[in-house]
Amino acid sequence: MLPNLPTTILLTLLFAMMRPSAPFLLRFTPLLPKQGSFSSPRTLRSTLQYKNLTTITYDEEPSQRPVSTPPIYEPPNSSNNPHVVRKNPFKVVSKFVPSGDQPNAIRELVSQLSNPTTKYTTLKGITGSGKSFVMSHTIAQLQKPALILCPTKTLAAQLCRELRSFLPNNAVELFVSYYNYYTPESFIESSNTYIAKKSSVNDEIDSLRHRATRALFTRSDVVVVASVSCIYGLGLPADYLDAARDIQVGARGDINFYKDVLNKMLYSTPEDNWGVKRGEYLLNYQNNTIKVWPPYEVEPVEIAFDQATSTVSNIIRITPTDSAESSKTIDLTSPTLQPSDLKIETLDNYYIYPARHFVTKKSRVEEACVEIEKEMKQQVRKLRNVDYNFEAADRLKNRVTNDLLLLRETGFCSGVENYSRHLAGRAQGVPPETLLDYLKFSGSGGSANITPGKKAESDWLLLVDESHVTLPQLRAMYHGDRARKMSLVKNGYRLPSAFDNRPLQDSEFWDRIDQAMFISATPGKFERELSPNGGVDMLIRPTNIVDPEIAVRPTKTQLKDLLKEIEERAARGEKTLAMALTKRDAEDMSSYLIEHGAKAAYIHSDLNTVERADALKMLQNNTIDCLVGVNLMREGIDLPQVSLVAIMSADCEGFLRSETALIQMVGRAARNINGNAIFYADKITRSMQRCLDETERRRSRQIEYNEVNGLEPISTTGSEIKSIFDIFREEANTNSLSQQAEWSRMPKKEVTYAANKPSLDPTITELVHNLPAKPGIYKFYANKEDRFPLYIGKAKDLKKRCKNYLTGKDSRPRINKMMEGVKWVEAVITPSERDALHLEAKMINLLQPAYNVCLKDDTSFPYICASTPKENTQYGGLPTFERVPRKNFKTNPNFDYEYFGPYSSSFEVDKILTNAEVEYSLRKLAFEAKNGEAKEVSRVNYLENFENCKSELFELENKGYVGEGVSAHSPIDLLFDEETNFSRDVVALTPLKKGEVLVKVLQLRKGIYRGSFDYRLSLGAEAGDEEHRYGDAIYKALESHYHDDSKRVSDDYDHKPENVMTQLPLDRESVKILKSLLKKGTTVRAPRKSGTNTKTDKVAMQFAIDNCNAAAEQILEIMPPSMTQRGTTNKQIKERQASLKSMLNLTDVPRVIECFDVSHHAGEDAVCSRVVFKDGRPHKESYRQFNIKSFTGNDDYRSLTEVLKRRFSRVGGEREGEGEGKGEVQVEVEEAWQVPDLVLIDGGKGQLKAALKGMEEAGVGVVNGDSGGTGLEVKLCSIAKKNEDVYTYVEDGTRQIVNSEPDEAGVLMLREIRDESHRFAVLNMRRRRKNRMMKS
User: Fold this and answer.
1) 845-873: per-residue pLDDT in tens?
2) pLDDT of residue 1229
3) CB-side exposure of 719: number of CA atoms within 13 Å?
4) What span is annotated as the signal peptide, if there is one (predicted)?
5) Do the Cβ atoms of 855 and 845 come closer than 8 Å?
């Protein structure tokens, strides 16, 4: 009856017939998807084996189908399924035909690679010979998918762009590292320094990586251009495929079911309701839709659901039409946008791959946790019993235990990649899955068998571009990674399984390769030995251009000579490349050239991928005439505009001036008919000589070829300016605008989204809102009575930082998980952010909170080190300032060292050093002393400025001053002095209202803050002066504190101290009673006024007083010293207005005050804000923003002059329609632009003068300043943030400071208005910058 059916089909049929509870209908249908299918690639691979069979389905009514349950897997439609491979042949499309040595090279390469016995070959093509063109033809004739390795991201982007132009009908994708910057986790044993991992991911590049892997699953005509990052782990291809889903119209499941599906595929929800980004989805319960944007797509799609039947009703994609995309002025968010500007595409199904390559099932996470715990116990035993490293054993146990806690709760932890072996289920030593494993799917439609460690089963070709650089990188990756992790494992920072989170070894990489072609102008020994007959040569360029002629010139006049060469070539429209030895030299040379009139910029590895592409673009579009680089400028840069390559210090023999490096650098000028190279050197090294000889050999052959064939050289035009990053950014921005246009039409009330905001306890919300806006540390507790906190952190502004946890701005899963269990927060005020950092490190290392992933094992802080070479040594260089991780870090006996600090962060140190180098011209003088003509004069000036900088800046700071030596700060070693504060209680008092006081007992143990206790007491009506009554309150609090042993909160330190220091002295009887409650020998005293511990006592007491004041403010019993808008009463406003009248010598109190502030981002998007306060309250209807129009840059003075002129030109006139004040409620002209009683400027004397100039140009005078043409005068003043000094014009017309204290009543009002103006300016600057970036 059912002949020749497979056993699985027969069993399925038999099982269905045995079902007693449901009517059964046998129906044979062709192998097409039923509406409602929801299949996985794994099912697809099994069903595609039976293409001629039929399927069996049940006949059920839609109402009988369960809601939010996975539908039955059915085979998808082959016409829509991406796994049905598109087999387009490779075909080169170009107006050029092979010429020169290209035809012979293509023929030889194809012949060699067509032979199965030939595994390797080499293309030895000189710069400009058309290697990319030859590669395209070779791939097309072999008809094989290809992986092309490049040494850098920049070269990979350029090559990808070129190959896309040669193979437009095929998939040419880019796969490079998606990090903007990356600092790996490491431990430096010599300095006992732990460095945590720091990185930033570029979402655009991540999208390109997803496009590459999707192309490998869906097409056979794929070329992937990759950097060496492709040999790092990428996640299991099988898991990635199994997690993918095909959503079809009619598929069963409601919006919540597909929400769960997307969550399992690692898609997230956006932080706000503006719209989705790649890898996100947005729920709209009002319209019953999901908007999802897969990372590999250039536009999102919207999935609509039928609520009645709980099925997918529609899938649409909205994109701009061709006419809309080509218009550079169209505003896709405008209400006037026409329907013809948008294209709506209806889809039958949509295949979605996961948002990340690393997909792990929940069941595997728990299995991995068990294995991790087992390995941890083994390694801890080894560290204790074999290595006798007890500190490392404890550290490892704590770190891994915390990681396991987070893995089980959230599925993620910091450094989760170090557990990849367990999460992937690999055995020890088995290499990770990489892009090479994904290449097995190329041309297979997702049906490749994955067996780790075996050769690829699909037939594909490896091409290694610039192989002389790329191959050494491949060999070095594994060894560098292992060496770094050896110290981490040895010192208890990582488990040994972290070794298996690694790049491929050299042997493992080549085991996966069937055939490879190396491409280089200077191939290494490895390539030459492996290739038949040494490879294939290409010495003749299609353009017939010969190699550049090289000149050798002395270094004494190299800068002056280089400037002359740049000017000559700029006059002809040609460009120059200058090669420096170091990144610092490149930056300094660029600055030197700009200072002397040349248009220059620099490029090196510290710039991120997009910035490097932009630097090259500046040279191509004539923005600059010279680009200064280092090693990054050697290989593959296609710049035909460059006619000169200048190599500085060419006689410094080494890697950067080797034969290979010199030949490659000279080749950058080989695409221009006027190409030349200059070696600035005082001698000819062996590498220089070999380069000169090789260049002469090539030139002889090329000149001879041109003469024999009667050919003339022709300069190339080069490739298009746009890089692959520009192209993809345009696609992303265009579709982002289309998305905004669509959602702008939707009523705001219809937009809902799943926020990242955690579910919080109301108590914690109230506590955080009452925190002080001061530096310090915060501790989150699960309960108020808990001994150990969940998390400890430091902040420059405690209130602002902790509010981020409440709003969900900290979107890390582990933090949101933690916040849901937080019931109490405790804050500790410190004198400075440095002290907060120091205290945070000590407390984390002591208490080891569960959610502090990175324990502060390194208790050192960065310092500035002044290194000065000793006389009569071989180190005759210049003295330098540099950042070091801790004091006494350097030990070279040939140098003298001085240390200044410590500082709270490396960022702070770098900022200080940068400002010092600019202020004292240290970088400029050092560069001229090394490369200029008057080297000795520059050296003398440098030494003088270096000593001035050291004495005027750093030595002042080391004595207790910050910045310019104005604001005193507390040295950290005094506040947390372990000897003096070994066992001490510090007691402070703050008066409250209604005759009450707050007494705080602060416990210091071993130099660490351990806890505090607050006592609220009534002073009573006893006789005596106020100090006596306060002292009596302190005594009562301490008596209760030490008498009650229930105050003991921990057994790891003694609750009763050896020393008690009170803010006020106590009488003898009180001291005697307290001593009887304490241990024998305990002292009770007030801070010393003289002696050895005077400073330590003063700092510790101030620490206690600050925390006591903060506690009093937090319970809202006293008014904070700084005015806030919410807490200012009408009485206070009148007092402050009267204070302003007196301070500024006004005839009446100022009721209307305007304040102006300028804000910009790195000189761009400059905005000036105007805020208006009426009767001490903000009048937001009159707020305005002014876009700076007369110039570009970051000149605050010119900005204020322009804005004040424009503002007061409108007095009594019509408001100009310049788009200012967008987004604000418009009012009548008379109200919005009336003359104020006082104009306030955010700044000092310079800003005040600039504002005066603008008002004068508008014809408005200033009281006590110059009179205006209209006779109208306005009072003008400014307030400087540094010391809160208020400047104004006095009777003699000069600018003077008119306040004596920063906390005067009038000054407090000006400070509030100034802060509001700054906030409004920054807000509008960021809004303008966001709009510009979206339109660019």
Assistant:
1) 777 787 775 544 444 567 888 888 887 55
2) 42
3) 24
4) 1-23
5) yes
What residues contact residue 1192 under an 8 Å CB cut-off, 6+ apart? 1163, 1164, 1166
Q: Around Cβ 1291, how many Cβ atoms within 10 Å? A: 9
Backbone angles phi, psi at 1308, to 5 degrees: -60, -40
Q: Tens of pLDDT along 210-243?
A: 999 988 888 889 999 999 989 998 888 888 888 8
Q: Do you find a cis peptide bond into 902, omega within 30 degrees of 0?
A: yes
Cα–Cα distance list, 521 to 127, 469, 662, 666 (Å): 6, 11, 12, 12
Burial 718-742 (b: 16+ CB within 10 A, else e): ebeeebbbbebbebbebbbbbbebb
Q: Which residues contact 388 (CB under 8 A, 6 or more apart)?
A: none
Specify whether the CB–CB gap between 1124 and 1177 falls below 8 A: no
Tell me what pLDDT residue 549 has: 94
d(C-alpha 1210, C-alpha 1230), whole Å: 10
pLDDT score for 499: 93
Q: By C-alpha distance, which of 1180, 193, 1331 is closest to 733?
A: 1331
Place of tokens 């005078």: 1261
In 3-state terms, what secondary structure has residue 365?
helix
CA distances to 84, 208, 426 from 441, in Å: 12, 18, 21
Q: How far is CA 1211 from CA 1178, 1216, 1255, 1265, 1274, in A?
A: 21, 12, 11, 19, 12
Q: Residues 752, 754, 755, CA angle at the centre, nearest 5°?
A: 110
3 state DSSP class of 673: coil
In the DSSP assignment, the letter for residue 1236 is P
| pLDDT value of residue 88 | 81
- Measured CA to CA, the distance from residue 954 to residue 948 in angstroms comes to 10
Q: Which residues of 66-93 are buried (b: 16+ CB within 10 A; e: fewer)?
A: eeeeebebbbbbeeebbbbbeeeebebe
- Backbone dihedral angles phi then psi of residue 903, each to the nearest 5 degrees: -125, 160
Q: Show the 3-state SS of 979-1023.
A: CCCCEEEEEEEEECCCCEEEEEEEEEECCEEEEEEEEEEECCCCC
For residue 774, CA distances in Å to 769, 1109, 1123 come to 13, 12, 15
Per-residue 3-state assignment (H helix, E strand, C coil) for 688-700: HHHHHHHHHHHHH
Q: What is the pLDDT of residue 1191?
A: 72
b/e code 329-357 from CB counts within 10 Å (16+ = b): ebebbeeebeeebbeeeebebbbbbbbbb
CA–CA dist 673, 916 (Å, integer): 45
SS3 of residue 315 by DSSP: strand
Amino acid at position 856, single letter: K
Any residues with CB less than 8 A from the CB of 1176 and at least 6 apart, and which?
Answer: 1128, 1130, 1133, 1136, 1137, 1309
What lies within 8 Å, CB to CB, of 217 at 6+ separation is: 82, 83, 241, 353, 438, 441, 445, 446
Find tokens 């604001």 and name the residue: 967
User: H or E element: which one contains 1242?
Assistant: strand 1238-1242
Which parts of the chain have pLDDT scores under 50? 1-84, 323-335, 445-457, 721, 723-725, 727-728, 730-756, 855-859, 875, 956-971, 1049, 1117-1127, 1213-1229, 1268-1269
Tell me the two tokens of residue 685: 């090294």
